[in-house]
Amino acid sequence: MRTRPFLLAAGLLTSTLALTAPPAFAAGPAAPYDFNGDGYRDLAIGAPGATVGGKTKAGAVTVVYGGSTGPSAAKYKLLTQDTTGVPDSAESGDGFGMAVASADLNKDGYADLVVGTPGEDRNGDTDDGMIQVVWGGSSGLSGSLTLSGGGADTDRLGQALAIGDFDDNDKIDVAMGGKGAVDLVILQGPYTKAGGADGGLRAASMANAPKPFDPAYGVEYLSAGDINGEGFDSLVVHGRKKGTDDALTAVADTRVLDFLGWMEYVPGGYVSAVGDVTKDGRADLLIGNHREPSADPSGALGGKVTLVLGAPESQWVNARSLATITQDSSGVPGAAESGDGFGSGVAIGDFTGDGYGDLAVGTPYETIGAAEDTGTVTLLRGMSVGWLSTGAVSLSQSTAGVPGTAETGDRFGARVVLSDTTKDGKADLTAAAPAENAGDGALWWLKSATTSTARSYGPTTFGISTAGTPAFGTTLRG
């Protein structure tokens, strides 16, 4: 077992923000993505390529509210930087919605939405990046607060986001990824609508880690969860190995002052999801790597996912159980073929209602018939020792009951989410095809991950222009 120093004060380019103390609230904190406090999970869909007010690639985020029959096209909120109450204005190349995350930041009983805008120019710095909070409330999302890197030397800050209690003080923190000299910033809670983060700021360069990240790519993806089962969240950081474009993934315990020197390196991948697959009270980690081994030593023929089981911290160094899953694994539909992209999208959620977290894996470059790169989603059951090799299902636009037609270049399954949008105790599957209709993008929702009531939505349903390539569904959380 390792012994490590614990964080006693903010460090690594710390900047304490002098703000008023947060008010007390009678309501308990809401679950993430429940923006109106009704108990239903809502969906947040990013279209960072959307044209807004004639400005190309300004970006947009649609929030579709959940309900007893699932997300409703009649009950949504479209957000851009031209939305009343959202600071700043839409500009070409901003990429508003490139990343999103959610938590009840001010603990008022309504989840809040955090949006990354990595192409935002700030203080004369091109593509400095910006993060904005849109506050939840009884009527849904309204009002906003701008967060920044506190003067740290960042580029494209907000291209990755994750939220959790990263310093074990029962307060919510926001982790932001970018590029450049400083590519990881953590704003420490508590948060208030009037001022933002009241706990300080920590910033670091992943290029200084024992296995350094390449600053040209920076921190490309973040996820978070309690994989040690100790009541606080670890931060999962994705980037590229310095001097290469090979995937590099690290798990950080940011309670530690010099957390860079104490990180755990797990199998490399480009995306991840965190959830309790084995029903043991600890979160597990699902890492997706869509690349071929000829392009990335961490990859596999047709792509792969790695399930990393949570374990007590005393076992942290060598005792995490791993399972590698490809389309050649026993019980997985299909066959591993070069360029399939299995693992481009990953999600964990209990769609059977048995308490075990199930898996969804997107394969957006799968060929169906003569249609290349049309895409599939594979559903795998969770169990006490990981995943169940029987009962797996593959879904696509050629599956009976799934709306649409499998067409070349759709990339169905590029992003997937498993979340309970109907409050029935079972996770529903939402899958995105950001290249549908020549880059317009589209979304599919399947109750309890079945096809019985499947429906789909395009960007125009929610008032997003199809000028250019909005790529609706590039970002998907819920």
From TrEMBL:
<dbReference type="InterPro" id="IPR013517">
    <property type="entry name" value="FG-GAP"/>
</dbReference>
<keyword id="KW-0378">Hydrolase</keyword>
<dbReference type="GO" id="GO:0016787">
    <property type="term" value="F:hydrolase activity"/>
</dbReference>
<keyword id="KW-0677">Repeat</keyword>
<feature type="signal peptide">
    <location>
        <begin position="1"/>
        <end position="26"/>
    </location>
</feature>
<dbReference type="InterPro" id="IPR000413">
    <property type="entry name" value="Integrin_alpha"/>
</dbReference>
<dbReference type="InterPro" id="IPR013519">
    <property type="entry name" value="Int_alpha_beta-p"/>
</dbReference>
<dbReference type="Pfam" id="PF01839">
    <property type="entry name" value="FG-GAP"/>
</dbReference>
<keyword id="KW-0325">Glycoprotein</keyword>
<dbReference type="GO" id="GO:0008305">
    <property type="term" value="C:integrin complex"/>
</dbReference>
<keyword id="KW-0732">Signal</keyword>
<dbReference type="InterPro" id="IPR028994">
    <property type="entry name" value="Integrin_alpha_N"/>
</dbReference>
<protein>
    <recommendedName>
        <fullName>Integrin-like protein</fullName>
    </recommendedName>
</protein>
<dbReference type="GO" id="GO:0007155">
    <property type="term" value="P:cell adhesion"/>
</dbReference>
